[in-house]
Amino acid sequence: MTIQWNDAMSVGNADIDNEHKQLIKLINQAEVALEERENHDALLAVLGELVKYTRYHFDREEIIQLNIKYPDYVEHKLEHQELVENLEEFMRHFEVASEKNDEPASEAVAPGGEPESASGSAATPDVELANGVGEPEVKSLAERNTEELMGLLRHWIIDHVLTTDRKMKPYLKVLR
Fold first, then answer.
1. Half-sphere exposure of 163 toward its Cβ, with a 13 Å CA cutoff?
2. pLDDT of 176
3. Which residue among 6, 73, 81, 164 is least crowded, i.e. fewest CB within 10 A of its CB?
C-alpha cells in the first residue's frame, strides 16, 4: 500500500514539505521493488537513491533547525542519525544478498560470524499461527527482513514526519 502525501504531513515550510514528498515517492518505489524481488539491481538503485536523498534532506533540515534556533535540534539530529544508520544497514544487507545472488536478507551474519535472524537469535524461521489456530505460518528471514525494512520506512515517514518534524512548525513560521 503506497503512502500518500496529505496536508496533515505539512510542517509549514515548502522546501521541507517538497523534500518529504520526494522521500515518500522514493519509499513507495522501494516498496514496489521489494514486493517484486525479481530485480536486485532495481532494488539497490532505489535504496541507494533513498539513502542519498535522506542524507541530503536531513542535512538541509538540520541547517534550517540551526537557523531558527530550534530547541529540540540535538534530539532531532540524533533521531536522523539513527534513521540513516538503520537505512544504511538495510542497504548493506541487500548489497551483500545481491552479491551472493541470493534473495534479499536470506541470512544475516552476526559480528561473530554466526548466522542470525533479524531478532538476533539463531537463524530459524518465525512460526506464527494464523489467528492463533490451525497450521503454523512459517516466515523466511527474507520475508521478515523485508517487512522490517518496510516497517522502518513507514515508521520514519509516518511517525517522524507527523510527530517529530511537525513539532518544528511553530518555529518555521519565522522563515515565511
1. 9
2. 66
3. 6
Report CA Rg, the chain. 18
Q: How far apart are CA 154 and CA 26, in angstroms?
A: 12
Q: Tell me the three cell numbers of residue 49.
A: 537513491
Report how far apart the first and last C-alpha atoms of the chain are (Å, whole number). Answer: 34
pLDDT digits (tens, 9 = 90+) for 95-139: 776 666 544 443 444 334 444 443 443 343 444 444 454 444 444
Could you tell me the pTM of the whole model?
0.72
Classify residue 122 by its DSSP letter: B
Evaluated on CA atoms 45, 46, 52, 56, the torsion sign reads positive
CB 123 within 8 A of CB 115: yes
Residue ranges per structural domain of the chain:
7-175
Q: Sign of torsion, CA 17 163 92 147?
A: negative
Q: Which CATH superfamily is domain 7-175 in?
A: Hemerythrin-like (1.20.120.50)
